[in-house]
Each structure stands twice: as C-alpha cells, then as structure tokens.
Amino acid sequence: MRTAEASFEASTLTIEEFLEKESGKELLRFSTAGSVDDGKSTLIGRLLYDARGIYEDQLAAIQKSKLNRSTGPIDFSLLTDGLRAEREQGITIDVAYRHFSTPRRKFIIADTPGHEQYTRNMATGASTSSLAIVLIDARNGVLAQTRRHATISSLLGIPRLILAVNKMDLKEYSRQVFEDICADFLYFAREMGFAHIQPIPISALEGDNVAKRSARTPWYTGPSLLEHLESVPVSTDVASGALRFPVQYVIRPDQNFRGYAAQIASGTIGKGDRVQILPSGQLSHVASITTFDGELEHAEAPMSVTITLEDERDISRGDMIVHTHSLPKLARQMEANLVWMTDEPLTAGRSYLLKHTTQQVNARVLSIESKLDIQAMERRQALSLGLNDIGTIRIEASRPLFFDTYKENRLTGSFILIDAISNTTVAAGMIISALEGRNAARRPVRAEERHKRNGHKPAVLEVHNANLATLLERRLFEYGCQVVALDNPGPVASLLAAGVLVITPMPGYANAIRVGELALPADDQAAVDAVLLYLAQHDILDSGHFAFGEGI
Amino acid sequence: MANLSHLRALEAESIHIIREVAAEFQKPVMLYSIGKDSSVMLRLAQKAFFPARIPFPLLHVDTTYKFKEMIEFRDHYPASIGCELRVYSNQEAVHAGANPFVLGTSKCCSLLKTRALLDGLAQGGYDAAFGGARRDEEKSRAKERIYSFRDGHGQWDPKNQRPELWNLYNSRVDKGQSIRVFPLSNWTELDVWHYIHLESIPVVPLYFAKERPVIVRGGSLIPPESDVVKLLPGEKVSMVKCRMRSLGCSPCTGAIRSDADTVPRIIEELLSFRRSERENRVIDHDQEGSMELKKREGYF
Question: What is the spatial distance between Cα A125 and Cα A144, in angstroms, rounded to a whole number?
Fold first, then answer.
C-alpha cells in the first residue's frame, strides 16, 4: 500500500524532506452515495483501512462494540456510521466527513445515505465535491436510486463520476455482468453532462480493485479505485475563471488602512488591476493585496485575502469586486433549480431569506415551474415541493443580485433559502438563468403560461352520458388537469379563460367536442380511454406532459 | 495554473469561516483550550483580520485542573498578540471540591467543563462560539456541521442539524440560542501539526518530550500534578521521558513515552506510532458513543 505513512517509513527521506513533499499535496473532495445494502460504508471502511487511515485504537473500539452486523472479523461499516441513533437503526442518516491521504493527495469524503428521504443529505455532500462515487450492487444492477445519485450529482455540478460496481465477488467476477451494468448506466447518464465517468469492478469486502488491481478481474485493464482517485484531475476551473471577489468583511484597524476581505470565489486578482465595484459600478485599481504573510502581487481562488484600492470608495459586505471585462449577470428575478429540505412544503408566493455569496436578502418564490420525477426522469408540473423534492422555480429578490449561472460558477451561482421564522435552512438553490423584465411579477398570466402549467388547452367537451361525464372528469382530474363537469349553462366562458377543461351536457358551445358523435366503445371505462386518446391526438392534452402512450 | 496545496486550501476555508462569523454575529467568542488546535485557530483568526486585531475575545473554561505550563502559556501568548482573554470557572463546583476520583470522570466533566462552558457562554451573552474540534477526532464529530446549532440550553440535536451547502452558512439564531463554529472541521491531526511546523506557531511545551515525573498506572503515565491524584499501594513517582499528545485536565490526561522534542519529530512519531490522540484521554472511552452523549448535553 502506498499510503503517505508507508512511503515515509519505506523511504530514506528525513522528516523535513517528507514534510516538504507533503506541503505540495493537493486536496480532492469527493462524495459517495449508496444504500445500506450496496456496501457503501464497507467500501469507505475498506478505503480508509487500506490507506491505513484508521488508527489502531479506533479499530480496537470497533472490535469491542456489540452491534457487529457482519460475520467477518471486522465490520468496516461500523467505522463510518457515527451516531448512536444510526448505529441502532443500521442506516447512515447524515453526511459524515472522512479523511485519508496518499503520497499524492489528501482526500475528504462526504459520505451520504442513499435513500430517497435523504436527497437533501446527498445534495449537501455533493455541493463541495468535485467527484462522486456512485455505487451499484452487481447483483441488482442500475436501480432507481442509482439514477437518483447520478441525477443529484449532475444537478449539483459534479464533473466526474466513478461507477463502482460492487460485490463482484458474489457474481464470480463476471466480465459480462460488469459490462452490462456499465452499458445500462452509461446509456442513462449520456445526457447528464459529466466530463468523465470511470466504471470500476470492485469487491469492497474482499478489497478487489479498491487499493490494488485484482488478479480476479484480469479482463479489467483500468485503474483501481484508489489509483483513479489519486490521478483524476482536481478541478482548476475556479482559478482560471472570471474574477469574483465577494466582499466579506471590511478591515479598518485605523484611519490609514481600509481593506476588503474575501475568499476569492473564482479567478485571479493582481496588484494594479482595474476593477469595478458592484452594485455601485464605481471603478478603481487594486493598490495592494495584504496578507499576514506579506503583500502579494497576485492572488487566486480559493485564497482568502484582503485588498486595498487606490481610491476611497464606499464598499461594504455583500458588494462584489470584478474585472470590468467580465461582469456577472445582474437581475432581481431568476430561474433556479431547488432542492427542498424541510417538512413544510414550498408553495408559490412564499417569502424567505436568500443567502447568496456574502449577502442576505428577502426573496419571494414567484412560481414553481416543474418538479423532477426522478424515478421516471421527467419533469412534471407541480403546485408545491415537498421534503427532498427537486424542482425548477422562479424567484424574485428584494434587490438585484450579481451572479453567474450555477453551470458557470458553483459559488456565485448558488444560494440557500432560510425560513425567517424557524431560522432553518429550507432549500438549496442553483441558478439557471436571469429572468428578463423587472416587472414580470406584475404581468398578467397569459394563456400560454396556463397552457404550459396545465399541460392542456381549454376546451368544452359536450357529453350527454352522465356516467361517462363523471368518469371522464375523475380521470382527467387524476391526471392533474384543470377540469370541471357542469350540468347547467354556468360561466363557461370564464372557465375557458382560466384554462379549464369543461365537461357539460349543455349543447351550443362554439367548438365544443361532441363526445357523443365520436365512435366510442360501449364500455364506459374504455370510452374514457378513447376520449383521452382523441384529446391527445387533437392537441388538447399535451402528450409529452402526460406521457400518454399505448396504455390509454 | 497549479492548485493550492491542501494546507493552503484548508487555511483559506477556515479564514472564510472565521470572517463570516465576525460579520454575521452580534457577539462571537473564541473558545480557547490552550491546546495545539486552539493555537492553530488563533493563528487563522490573526490572519483573517490582519492588519487589524482579532475583533472578538477568547474564553478559557478553566476546570482548575489544567497543567501549570498550560496556564502560564495561556496568560502569556494571547496577550502577546494583542488578544483579549477571559476565563470562566464553575466556582461553585470548584469550591465544593469536584474531582474525577470522587465524582467519576463523567460527572466531573459535566460540572467543570460542560456546565462551566454553558454558564460562561450565557454570562457573556455570546451568540457564536468558535471551537477547535476536528471531524477526524472521533466518530460523532465526523457528522458535526461547521456551524453547529445549539438550542436555548446549549444542546445539540444530531437529528435536527441544518443542511450546510457550499460555503453558505446559516447564522440565524433567536435570542438565547447560539451557534458553535468549528473552523478546523476539515483538518486532521497531521494537518494541524504540519501547519504548526510551517507557520512556526508557539505551542505549550508539554507537547514536547522531556523527563517528567509520572505515575506508571496500567498502560498510562499519570502526571502527579494535581493533589487529587493519589498514589495507589505499590506505586511511586518516577522520571520518564514523555510528552502529552493532547492537553486536558492533568488527572485525566495521560502522557506517552516519547523522544519527540521538536515539531517534525512529533509528526514523525505521529506517522509511525499510530494511536488516536484521544486514546490517552479517559473521557471518550467511559461509555460507548460517549463523546456524542457529552455533545448532546452541550460539551464541545
């Protein structure tokens, strides 16, 4: 094993030389997600164990523990399941952070649970990771939760995946099994925007292809898990991107020094650079980059530094300092993906505190555009987002925000929502785009918007068979349509304006679909199916929206 | 462009956290335990606000069982860098003679550490308190947030932690509630020593090996520093070359045999001599999951 410690022991380096080498190590943060049965905790335990990241007395404490679940000598999973409640239930509930290191790198693992009810924990772990290990049980192949892990990783902007096909020992290390699973997964993930996916056949329990390549998979020519973790590029995008310097704190020890402190979110700042301060738009030049360790000529993301400017400017926390040639977007209204993280559901119209970079503003959710159905991998209309739901929303801040899209910049494109009453963090947001038009919130709702949300156009269905009318109303309602069955003339015109499907026995409405004139089967249920098909074929119901197929 | 080394990346993250707290809370305080982690945290705070002074005080919760060398260091070093230090003890329990041999370590810690900490924080009206805990120290700490919310009683609910994404920390608290902040969450013990080495940060001399008087008891070396440590039949005080891996109260902190008298040698020892730094602190082993129990009650 080539751990940091082993390399020290085995080499003839002095401790000083060793520390010199250590000082140049990079840091890679990655996340894992998987359910109890995938053996995720076992895999992490194995990684830590093989990397000798586990201290002897921690191992001793595990061997004393009464709750060993497996029959083997050491239950690796007990090393990583921290809290008592979790140990008793045998599930990893929260995000646990683990450390290990090799001669080349230091690693921080964000270990997250895989169940659907822990989507928020997965999102939390993924938010600071630049790689994700998606674990698959070789016996089960790609499951709904495999798809969920990949989807959340993609949504949270993780560029690289390792597809770890585990428990290969239980499938006789079969190449066919491995390749079938990879093909399934790669097909599913083809449009998720990952820069790289590395599939690796492993057995966490036996240690195959975890630290070392295994002789039991001679057909596999790729790297072991640890080899890949050591060599995969650590993202350097942040330092080479556009300068984003979100002012965190104004440092003013005396009248002669006025410094602006920030952790550089992206890009590089240099002494003498011409900069613009947002939102005021004032221009100045960087006079100095001051640190405890002396002045610098340049500083790059993600360093925490303090700068002074050549001109006296009124700058406070929440302002953003940028280069004039690469300005961020400016808007009060944005469209964003949201992971909802609290029990009380989100409904349009609610106001929250929005924290973005170093500023906090009031914000109102204008609308819920769609909700992601992860099982079906489809976006559907929704009136609310519940705990662990992922949706696309439109939001309006009380003052303009300076931001980039989340795809461009994970730090200036993200925000959290805080409930001002309970003080809890209720959502994680990833900005998709700025919404044009300052007055969008005051604009009347248009027919096209109703159509888009409802998934259908307004229409009158003239139905004389009362039984059929009731069944039709029920079925359309179940599909989420705006539908009403009326047995009197009623305010039909108003309902149509509201985008509703109106079912009525009353004749005489213009353009009414006269259901009685269609060739329908005698059986009422079959007749309902035929009517739905007719409505889909005639573009009243959006077939994409309802996924109507041969089943109708 | 080359990536920042892992220590510089951790440093930048910690400075960001310390500044966030100073910017968003009314009355922050930095818990100062005099140990190596506190020394690193203090250096990071200096860096965060340079060239200004650290804009919050330090608070030491004194059990009165600390080593004399710790108290000397405490009274000298923070003042030398222009930092204000406050000290708080549970005077009632101290006067009642609380000690681990009579009360047991659990109850003694509860009175002199946990109770004193909660009272000290309440008395100062602090709404945020920095602590030097690291996630690599102990299993329950691996799940601790960087901003750890505490209710009006200073208690931690592991099932009700706030989600923490990117570098966006939620600093909202109601009156009486507070946040414990752990800027060293992502550091390991090796990182801490490595940083002390790179930055030449002063630490308490007890960390360095020298001949010290100790009682050899079982596998432990107990310094007879406090009056409450009594010799058992057949025991005697002998001189052993040893050092402390972590600093706590003298009756409950064992020394280890060691020749490591410089920071690089300590690191060398750390790498070859693989025991968790908490092994020699009795308090984490008195119950399964004991650190988590203490934290639920409000201990750091």
Answer: 19
Asked if A52 contacts A132 with a C-beta cutoff of 8 angstroms, the reply is: no
Q: Which of A212, A123, A135, A132 is nearest to A168 (CA)?
A: A135
Q: Which two tokens stand for residue B175?
A: 């009156």
- Which residues numbered 169-198 in B keep a CB inside 8 Å of some CB on A? 170, 172-174, 177, 185-186, 188, 190-191, 194, 197-198
Nearest to B189 by CA among B180, B197, B178: B197
Q: What local confidence, expressed as pLDDT, does residue B293 receive?
A: 54
List, for residues B20-45, the tens digit of each pLDDT value. 999 999 999 999 999 999 999 999 99
- Taking alpha carbons only, the member of B300, B289, B279 closest to residue A83 is B289
Under 8 Å between Cβ of A475 and A528: yes
Nearest-by-Cβ selection for A123 from B53, B139, B165: B165
Residues of A whose CB is below 8 A from B3: 26-27, 234, 236, 239
The mean-pLDDT minimum among A124-133, A182-191, A241-250, B211-220 falls in B211-220
Which pairing describes strands A298-300 and B256-257: parallel, antiparallel, or unpaired? unpaired
CA-CA distances (angstroms) from residue B143 to A87, A112, A129, A446?
13, 10, 16, 48
Q: Which amino acid is at A347?
A: T
pTM across the whole model:
0.80
pLDDT band at B198 (very low <50, low <70, confident <90, very high): very high
pLDDT digits (tens, 9 = 90+) for A246-268: 999 999 999 899 999 999 999 99
A5 with B274: Cβ contact below 8 A:
yes
Indicate yes or no: CB of A19 within 8 angstroms of CB of B194: yes
Which of A83, A101, A234 has the CB atom closest to B140's CB atom? A83
Counted across chains A and B, CB pairs separated by less than 8 A come out at 212
Confidence of residue B298 (pLDDT cuts 50, 70, 90): low
Inspect the interface and report whether the beta carbons of B292 and A84 lie closer than 8 Å: yes
Residue with tokens 């993280």: A341
In DSSP terms, B255 is beta-bridged to B221
In the predicted structure, residue A549 carries a pLDDT above the cut 60:
no
Q: Which residues of A touch B48 (CB under 8 A)?
A: 249, 261, 304
Supply angle C-alpha A13, A18, A23, rounded to 5: 160
